[in-house]
Amino acid sequence: MNFTMNDLALLVIALLIGWILGLMMSGRGKFKRLWQDERVAHRTGIKDRDARLEAANARIVELERQRPAPVATPAAGGLAAGTAGVAANGMHGRDDLSRISGISQREEVALNEAGYHRYSQIAAINAEQEATLEARLGLTPGTIARDDWRGQALALERGESKPGLLGRLTGSR
To answer: Superkingdom, according to UniProt (predicted)?
Structure first.
């Protein structure tokens, strides 16, 4: 048998690969121990995650039970001014942000996901938060200031029915 250098090199490479795979699959190898340790760590992480989720869900249920019911007052048309948007929208603890001119239903959902649920939160945003929101919503820079979201939110929070430019034109401000 005549072997060339290429044949010998391929034979040595095949033997090395076989030896490495054998070590990895043997019951005594450190790779198997590391793999088993990783499996145990993964299972523990999953159990911890599930326990945290269960505790968080229990806390949510507890807080839902503790939440007071909306208070009715005749002066505000049957609802307190702070809960008018909440009752109109059918959601708990949220105002109907789509009542602000320039906020669509899609943008309202994005604002809710960003943590903005109340008119007071929109009225209190600063320039940096405004720029972040415009980027998140895909709006051109300056849209929030141009549409006066803060002023409209403040008017809605006060209970005015026609905020923004339409309200200024009709004299309801």
So the answer is: Bacteria
